[in-house]
Amino acid sequence: MEIGIVGLPNVGKSTLFNALTGAGIAAENFPFTTIEPNIGVVPIEDVRLHVLAEKNKSKKITPDGIRFVDIAGIVKGASKGEGLGNKFLGNIRAVDAIVHVVRCFTDDNVVNVAGDLDPINAADIIETELLLADLQQAEKALERLAKPAKAGDKDAKAKYEALSSAIAGFNEGKSARVQKISEEILNEYQFLTAKPILYVANTDEGNTHPEVIEALEKRALEEGAKTVVLCTKMEAEIVELPPSERAAYYDAAGITSPGLAKLAQAGKELLGMTCFFTSGPTESRAWLIPKGTKAPKAAGKIHSDMERGFIRAEVYKYDDLVKYGSEQELKAKGLASLEGKEYVIKEGDVVFFRFSV
Prior knowledge:
The protein has helices at about 15-20, 45-55, 85-95, 120-150, 155-170, 185-190, 210-220, 230-240, 245-250, 260-270, 295-300, 305-310, 320-325, 325-330; strands at about 1-5, 40-45, 60, 65-70, 95-105, 195-205, 225-230, 275-280, 285-290, 310-315, 335-340, 350-355. The chain is of the alpha/beta class. A hairpin with a 3-residue loop joins β8 (about 275-280) and β9 (about 285-290).
């Protein structure tokens, strides 16, 4: 699953991507520096992995990660093809969720294509283009359904009515996220404004415009979305430091939780993912899977043979391990269980899969 990083030109998308992945992509003061989407996997640092590795004397620690796609800046008129709009909208359509980077900093050396420092207007420009794209798609689908619906096709009639309602909402400026659109319609038409969204308020060092951020946070709450506040420029600079020096830099800046760590965790939540672990002398590893995944499918994340030949899963909770100290103690207390094909993997499960092929 992937998260697309979107926003107007020059808001800090590529700088954020550089910080997230350490990729050496261009982050220059030019609206269309990023024309092909850049993809990077950002590891989620998890202290639980290190605890498991220590207890099981693992030789290797492997975190899982979130795939981020840096999508070039959208401009007003993108839904009509302005500024390579069709290409960019197609890239957005291909991702599972959206991180919308909004400029909340002033810098005379970086052109502000939106003019004033107005995060609501900037957010509206992106949202409007996505709404217009959804509106066009829905209207075209409605035209195709008109004839069979009129002829009495029940399925076509139901879709026609659902799309008519969605179109009315789009015309009122309501995204698919806030409309009550059925899962069937959402799955079939994949509206851009139905994708989960997270706002990133890109600030300057010292956060000199708190009122701007407050306005963005209020807007996000109205959509049921969250906001992560960070300075992409500073985060990118810190990533270039040796790991041993980064903590001191954060302390000097008065930052208790690095912005990138917060963003990676927020990305996990945005995608609706949960994390389980496998751990032994060879390796302690984290695995991200969609919430609600059953044990065989989770085993398949590791290897397809494990899903195909699944027998059972031996499961204990990370928190129980920390509390009682060892896997042997958990077994003695009945806190390690054998689970079958219907077991739903939960956050923090430590699992050993039994299989035969």
